[in-house]
């Protein structure tokens, strides 16, 4: 049986191109189209914790650009192969992260492959040390080795970030240490600021460069207690995503020293990422930085309210064992674990959403062993409408739809 925080394949907005996702969707179909029902209930619901872009129609998504004139001069010429608005976005990101430069990429998978490949050329060591639950290890079809020619070694598989001792005492040499902040598959967890600085120093002692997988770095400032530029300043390079929290159409960036970024742009071309025009995505990213980035601390704070209410609700409903992980969320995303089969929880969640209009659990439940399942909870602007009492009431309704006896 896996314990809370252990890795698993999960339905996650934007992470839908893996074999695990294909298998999971086929499983949903075999269970009577539960995913289709879940998405329909989510779209028609009066109250949800988050409404992501993939929940919206094309017309609704295009409306994101209605305010684009507030973030960029729309009378400027359109971009061609990465100039214009794309360069403006790159400059904006470098300024926010306090780096010399940044390079826009169409995907985060490409961005990180390129960054780590560039560092391998500089260090002369193609070995990348990372966590066993890190995104390249779990969700990218071994791209670092199959495409980039890199070799990965796993510093730890524990449901937390690596410790300084684990990095310092690791038995094999490596040229780069990649740290995912937060570590998504362990429960969107972060280290403390002190732990993070110690891990970085341990890597420096081994003459290794440090790269941050910061796909969700934007929302990490609250838990780490430091600004974006202070966090990014610990690393030699940083990758950030524009759609996971900023709600852009897509895209990513690698930020770091100007010389590294220039080489990254050359590899971007070789990898097929030098797209002719990218102004819709670049504009949507600028809109996200303007509108969503300032609100992320508010979402994190409310996620902690929701998490506490979930714990209280399950305790009041008499569920013999329930886990919110982390107990106090580090970001606006966290996990919920319950002692039931995934199919039972999925059906109860969908029926509750269909019949009440309140979506307590809007994402797939994944089995983590006999009689144990887990789901993710994402809190964004829509989630601010929920009070703690609303959450507790929804939990009571949800539990009432579960069988009287649980596994165990």
From TrEMBL:
Return the InterPro entries for the record.
ArAA_b-elim_lyase/Thr_aldolase, PyrdxlP-dep_Trfase, PyrdxlP-dep_Trfase_major, PyrdxlP-dep_Trfase_small
| Sequence segments annotated as region (Disordered) | 1-31
Gene Ontology CC terms, in alphabetical order: cytosol
- Required co-factor? pyridoxal 5'-phosphate
Q: Do the record's keywords include Oxidoreductase?
A: no
Mind listing the GO biological process terms from this record? glycine biosynthetic process; L-threonine catabolic process
Molecular function via GO: L-allo-threonine aldolase activity
Stretches assigned to the Aromatic amino acid beta-eliminating lyase/threonine aldolase domain: 80-311
Composition bias type Basic and acidic residues, residue spans? 8-31
Q: Which UniProt keywords apply?
A: Pyridoxal phosphate
The UniProt family comment states: Belongs to the threonine aldolase family.
Q: What is this protein called?
A: L-allo-threonine aldolase
Q: Can you name the source organism?
A: Streptomyces viridochromogenes (strain DSM 40736 / JCM 4977 / BCRC 1201 / Tue 494)
The taxonomy runs: Bacteria, Bacillati, Actinomycetota, Actinomycetes, Kitasatosporales
